[in-house]
Amino acid sequence: MTTESIYRYAVPIRVVLVLAYVAGLIGLQLPAVAGYFKALTALNLLATLAVLLYFHTDWQPSFYFYVALAVLTGFFVEVLGVHTGAVFGGPYAYGTGLGPKIWGVPPVIGVNWLLLTYCFGSLADRLSLPVYMKAILAATGMVLLDFLIEPVAIRLDFWTWFGGPIPLQNYLGWWLVALVLLSVWYGLPFRKENRVAGLIISLQAFFFAGHNLLYYL
């Protein structure tokens, strides 16, 4: 499929993506249907990744390597975190909100690490900065988004922290894992631009900021 034929469907795909996130924000706030929308959370993440990859334009072996690396690293880091508390600074466990689990972790969490590192990496790549600064900025952006994600994830039973508030090491752990993955991302020889990366980050920020606002109203 040529780049021109891919971009031909950009507008309707963007519209569907926006509507999906708006519907999710509303549906998860309505008790009568919240359970149905919660069950669709993992599917929404997979669909969002599918849209992102649809607009990817450089399918080199190095990109396949990054996809596998990000998914597997994200998943196994979370397995380590759940079973030892060593990575993110405290005991936590995944609930039912993100679907089936292997070794206590939903496999879709690896998809989330791929999705976020790709999108933030693509956005930061547009800046005229040294590569190390792009990696630092992208990893920092992921942590800022996590500040919005954490309260919502706990309320929606994505995961639960035990024994106190969310530890600061959680955010440091996020930043360090993201920085490692993004350093690899920038070091691999494939094109980083993607037309929907900015939209996806905007929708994720809208989704989690919207939930936080509605919870406190």
UniProtKB/TrEMBL annotation:
Pfam families, alphabetized: Caroten_synth
Keywords on record: Membrane, Transmembrane, Transmembrane helix
Statement: the UniProt record of this protein carries the keyword Membrane: yes
Chain ranges passing through the membrane: 12-30, 36-56, 63-82, 102-124, 131-152, 172-189, 196-216
Highest rank taxon of the organism: Bacteria
InterPro entries (alphabetical): CruF-like (IPR007354)
Span of the signal peptide: none
Keyword Disulfide bond set for record: no
Family matches, as PANTHER family: SLL0814 PROTEIN (PTHR39419)
UniProt-recorded name of the protein: Carotenoid biosynthesis protein
Organism this protein belongs to: Fibrella rubiginis
